[in-house]
Write a structure and sequence with these properties.
Elements lengths: L7 E5 L4 H12 L3 E6 L2 H11 L4 E5 L5 H15 L4 E4 L14 H28 L3 E6 L12 H21 L4 E8 L19 H14 L8 H12 L10 E4 L11
Parallel strand pairs: 1-2, 1-4, 2-3, 4-5, 5-6, 6-7
Bound molecules: nicotinamide-adenine-dinucleotide.
The site of nicotinamide-adenine-dinucleotide (NAD) has 30 residues, from helix 1 and strand 2.
Length: 261
């Protein structure tokens, strides 16, 4: 028995990183998964690796409403009614707030915030019609506390927590639970672009990153995408059946406070 037997779950940004691990874990737990992304080649390869009877890739730019409708159609055609969504897709831009071009600020909002909104808006009626289910939004450590040079990103991640709470209130009557994950630093191309080009990163740079995490994260290391996937599984499956509207921090203790020793 898998924890997600009989479920059909759409996961955005699933071509790599956390979304990929969520897709792999959910499929291993019995779900049929639909992977949406804008990285077509990578997304299709992950879906193929999971297996055609368990996974499909669909091009889904989360900021485009028409892409959402098409993705739902693909999911229903392939696997039947959809009962879960993981709003995982996201982008990060580093900039001092006062130096951030308006276009860049809007681009981050379009993907991270409008994308999550469209996901909830499009999928909630489907999940309700399937008899209920779950929506898991991906916020961040920066949705709960400040971090310099990621102003646009932090604004969207805080907004996702607002969306999560309101959606939980409005959708509970349709038997849809809505929660959010707040990861700290996770070892994916977003936080570690060196993963995309391992040859291009020096040993010194690698050591400096490891040293940084050792210093600021109580558990002394960066998180692994598989560890975020396990939280997504908890929030999608019945183990969290009485939980809705909440943010879940998964950050190795980073948010717990400051150590002075
Ligand atoms: P990642 O960059 O490896 O993965 C993000 C995925 O989203 C990519 O596959 C990318 O192609 C996809 N994507 C980007 N724009 C898209 C769009 N318009 N439509 C559809 N897909 C799109 O990074 P990740 O760490 O796996 O990020 C997953 C989520 O976790 C993001 O929401 C991110 O903000 C959040 N997060 C990451 C960290 C971290 O340290 N890595 C920390 C906290 C939160």
């Amino acid at each position: 028995m898998g924890k997600l037997d009989g479920r059909v779950v759409l996961i955005t940004g699933a071509a790599r990183g956390q979304g990929e691990q969520e897709a792999r874990l959910f499929a291993a737990e019995g779900a049929r998964v639909v992977l949406g992304d804008v990285l077509d080649e990578q997304g299709a390869a992950v879906a193929e690796d999971i297996g055609g009877d368990r996974a499909r890739y669909v091009r889904l730019d989360v900021s485009r409403e028409e892409d959402w409708a098409a993705a739902v159609a693909v999911a229903k055609e392939a696997f039947g009614p959809v009962s879960g969504l993981v709003n995982n897709a996201g982008i990060l831009r580093f900039n001092e707030l006062t130096a951030t071009p308006l276009e860049e600020f809007r681009q981050v909002i379009e993907v991270n915030q409008v994308g999550a909104f469209l996901g909830i808006k499009t999928l909630a009626p489907e999940i309700g019609a399937a008899g209920g289910g779950t929506i898991v939004n991906t916020s961040s450590y920066t949705g709960l506390t400040g971090m310099a040079y990621v102003g646009a990103y932090a604004a969207t991640k805080a907004a996702i927590l607002g969306l999560t709470r309101v959606a939980a209130l409005e959708l509970a009557a349709r038997n849809i639970r809505v929660n959010a994950m707040c990861p700290g630093a996770v070892d994916t191309p977003m936080a570690n672009p060196g993963l995309l080009d391992p040859a291009g990163i020096t040993d010194e740079a690698r050591d400096a990153m490891a040293e940084l995490y050792k210093r600021v994260v109580p558990l002394g290391r960066v998180g692994r995408p598989e560890e975020i996937a396990r939280l997504a599984l908890f929030l999608t499956g019945d183990d969290s059946s009485y939980i809705t509207g909440q943010p879940f921090v998964v950050d190795g203790g980073w948010m717990a406070g400051v150590s002075i020793l």
